[in-house]
């Protein structure tokens, strides 16, 4: 009788372990940050303070979920901030002074975001233009279109239908709508990526595009889908921005591309693709938002928020590189040990529980 010994964990299990450790470390850092700030200023954890943090983090976390889909395929989208601005202004201009409801606003915003994502996706996936070049270009193009449409005008909250403003400031059972929407989207996307074969193909593309191609994965279609989905979520975020703030100028989310990428990478999504989760990205968004609130409470110059975000981005990318090298080293040692282990002699069976049979 031959015993079947358990095989050592493969690269996937090692990466999953690292991801859980990263997400846990982010959560611990978040708790420590909140506890220390509360000790300095007890009003930080007031009901209004906590609500403001979650409301402000909701839009960033929603963008981070969409960016995760793109980044795990070894790409990036730097245009999300300008897409938010375009959607918020165009939708606000369309509904101002009318009785249009939430559905019309959401459909229009999602359509604009999907169109922007489609352009990015077609250029990156089918024309093979580097994602950094494409999305940096569309960032400025969308900004230009937004300023042309706005022409110095401003959308005032008094002109926006109350139903839309209620989406950004209302609640159900005391819980604001915005965090509920973000959590629902995060859970749906997270479940899709892990439970469906087409979702797991996003990770396969990021891990090894050549291997994914040999396995029959439709790489171009998946990359295109990632960009369109990211655009859809950016469009939804633009509508939520309008609903949250009411008053909108041209390009209100300028510079948010850095925050979104930082949230994703800090949350454990490898910038080289193939690794990460939407849950970690959302945690990263919450951490970055909390840091901003802490600086305000402690009356520290807002310049330091951008500096801290940049530092976190550098540390996260460096950590990813160190972890990748460590995982590769461990796998090489295991493979070498497996090749050098002596095979049982002919006619001799493997021992079971230390006893030869």
From TrEMBL:
Keywords, sorted A to Z: Cell inner membrane, Cell membrane, Membrane, Transmembrane, Transmembrane helix, Transport
Task: State one molecular function term (GO).
Answer: transmembrane transporter activity
Q: Does the keyword RNA-binding apply?
A: no
- Membrane-protein topology: Multi-pass membrane protein
Primary location: membrane
Lineage, top-rank taxon, reads Bacteria
Transmembrane parts of this sequence: 24-41, 53-72, 78-95, 102-127, 175-193, 223-244, 256-275, 282-301, 307-324
Record's subcellular location: Cell membrane
**What GO cellular component entries does it have?**
plasma membrane
Keyword match Transmembrane helix: yes
Report the protein's function.
Answer: Part of the ABC transporter complex LsrABCD involved in autoinducer 2 (AI-2) import. Probably responsible for the translocation of the substrate across the membrane.
Oligomeric state and partners?
A: The complex is composed of two ATP-binding proteins (LsrA), two transmembrane proteins (LsrC and LsrD) and a solute-binding protein (LsrB).
Q: What is this protein called?
A: Autoinducer 2 import system permease protein LsrC
Source organism per UniProt: Actinomadura craniellae
């Amino acid at each position: 009788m031959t015993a079947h010994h358990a095989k050592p964990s493969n690269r996937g299990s090692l990466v999953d372990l690292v991801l859980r450790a990263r997400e846990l470390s982010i959560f611990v850092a978040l708790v420590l940050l909140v506890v220390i700030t509360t000790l300095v200023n007890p009003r930080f954890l007031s009901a209004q303070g906590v609500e403001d943090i979650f409301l402000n983090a909701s839009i960033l976390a929603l963008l981070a979920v969409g960016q995760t889909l793109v980044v795990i395929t070894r790409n990036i989208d730097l245009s999300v901030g300008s897409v938010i601005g375009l959607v918020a202004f165009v939708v606000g201009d369309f509904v101002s002074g009318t009785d249009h409801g939430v559905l019309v606003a959401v459909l229009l915003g999602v359509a604009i975001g999907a169109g922007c994502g489609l352009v990015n996706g077609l250029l990156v996936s089918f024309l093979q233009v580097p994602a950094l070049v494409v999305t940096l270009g569309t960032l400025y193009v969308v900004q230009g279109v937004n300023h042309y449409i706005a022409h110095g005008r401003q959308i005032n909250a008094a002109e926006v239908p109350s139903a839309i403003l209620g989406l950004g400031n209302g609640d159900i059972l005391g819980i604001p709508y915005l965090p509920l929407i973000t959590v629902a989207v995060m859970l749906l996307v997270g479940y899709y990526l892990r439970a469906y074969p087409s979702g797991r193909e996003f990770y396969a593309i990021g891990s090894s595009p050549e291997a994914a191609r040999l396995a029959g994965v439709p790489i171009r279609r998946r990359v295109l889908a990632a960009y369109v989905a990211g655009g859809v979520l950016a469009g939804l975020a633009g509508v939520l921005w309008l609903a949250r703030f009411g008053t909108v100028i041209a390009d209100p989310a300028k510079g948010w591309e850095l925050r979104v990428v930082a949230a994703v990478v800090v949350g454990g999504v490898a910038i080289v693709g193939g690794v990460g989760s939407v849950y970690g990205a959302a945690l990263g968004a919450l951490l970055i938002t909390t840091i901003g609130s802490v600086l305000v409470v402690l009356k520290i110059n807002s310049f330091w928020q951008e500096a801290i975000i940049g530092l976190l981005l550098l540390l996260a990318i460096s950590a990813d590189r160190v972890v990748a090298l460590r995982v590769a080293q461990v796998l090489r040692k295991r493979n070498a040990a497996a090749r050098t282990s002596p095979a049982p002699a002919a006619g001799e069976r493997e021992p079971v529980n230390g006893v030869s049979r």
